[in-house]
Design goal:
Strands 1-3-2 form a three-stranded antiparallel beta sheet, with no helix packed on it. A hairpin with a 5-residue loop joins strand 2 and strand 3. The N and C termini lie far apart (about 90 Å). Helix 5 crosses helix 6. It contains six helices and three strands. Helices cover about 35% and strands about 5% of the residues. With about 170 residues, the chain is mostly helical. The protein has three domains: about 30 residues, no CATH class; about 80 residues, no CATH class; about 40 residues.
Length: about 170
């Protein structure tokens, strides 16, 4: 009787039952993953939202428990995590240019977020791309790409302002 050959990944984990995983066991592939247990962002198309769903969302909205802050100073007295997910600085969702909603963390509720406001993150000071990626639910490489785009826009604005200010 012939026994099936036992195969191991480079770390010694058994991969004989894994199938076609190219010599990597499930444990090693989980360790290699950049996203580390996070769920990908989800986009909700506003064209597909029903009137019933809109009524449910309106009913769930806070009823002016706190007046919506207009400045950073107004945010000082608002409890954290911030309940205003529609705020421009809130990290829970983004409203895209076509009107769609992008849920950055669809696996958790807004009240469960550790950091809910990008202005709170700015007050902490600098962050590494790895830390920013974890907070924003993106990979370190995607955080670097966004940083490059923003730095290019900032350079263009700075050049434009210099040209206008010079006589």
């Amino acid at each position: 009787m012939r026994r099936a050959a036992q195969r191991f990944c480079k770390h010694g984990h058994d991969i004989s039952m894994v199938g076609r995983n190219h010599g990597v066991c499930n444990e090693c592939s989980r360790q290699r993953s950049r996203r580390k247990e996070s769920v990908r962002p989800r986009t909700i198309s506003m064209q597909r939202v029903t009137q019933r769903q809109l009524k449910v969302w309106r009913a769930e909205a806070p009823d002016g428990e706190h007046a919506r802050p207009r400045t950073r100073g107004d945010c000082a007295n608002v409890p954290r995590p911030c309940p205003f997910v529609g705020c421009r600085q809130n990290l829970y969702l983004d409203v895209q240019s076509n009107g769609n909603l992008k849920l950055n963390r669809p696996d958790i509720e807004p009240g469960e977020m550790r950091f809910s406001c990008c202005l709170d993150l700015a007050e902490l000071g600098g962050m590494t791309l790895e830390q920013l990626g974890v907070v924003m639910n993106m990979t370190r490489e995607r955080a670097r790409q966004v940083e490059d785009v923003l730095l290019a826009k900032l350079a263009a604005v700075t050049t434009h302002l210099r040209e206008e200010l010079e006589p």
